[in-house]
């Protein structure tokens, strides 16, 4: 071969499209394996005010846990409140309509 001869060129477009397709498939697989994130977090510090009482967000978080069928004991432990406070919130949740109540926005 002489120095004037060029190496054969090939079209890179199909290869780049294949790489993009593989990356898209990998991302879709990652999304399928990713654990669903909770829409609310019982341990969020915004759930309690400076006086230790539940904020509106904290009350809604309790209500959503009751919506999921959690017990008063498990809500009390998750929210780090007393069992009596969880019982109070449970009774308020039932009075508000239980699972049929109108949910407020979190965040």
Structural class computed from helices and strand pairing? mainly alpha
Q: Describe the biggest sheet?
A: none
Strand content: under 5%
Task: State the shape.
Answer: rod-shaped
Which percent range fits the helix content?
A: 40-55%
Low-confidence stretches: none
SSE topology string: HHHH
The beta-strand count equals: 0
Compute the separation of the termini in Å: 70 Å
Taking all Cα atoms into account, the compactness measure Rg is 27 Å
Q: How many separate helices?
A: 4
Average of per-residue pLDDT values: 85
Q: What would you say this structure looks like, in words?
A:
The chain is mainly alpha-helical. 50% of the residues lie in helices and 0% in strands. The protein is built from 4 helices and no strands. The longest helix has 21 residues, at 13-33. The radius of gyration is 27 Å and the shape is rod-shaped. The termini are far apart. The model has no long low-confidence stretch (mean pLDDT 85).
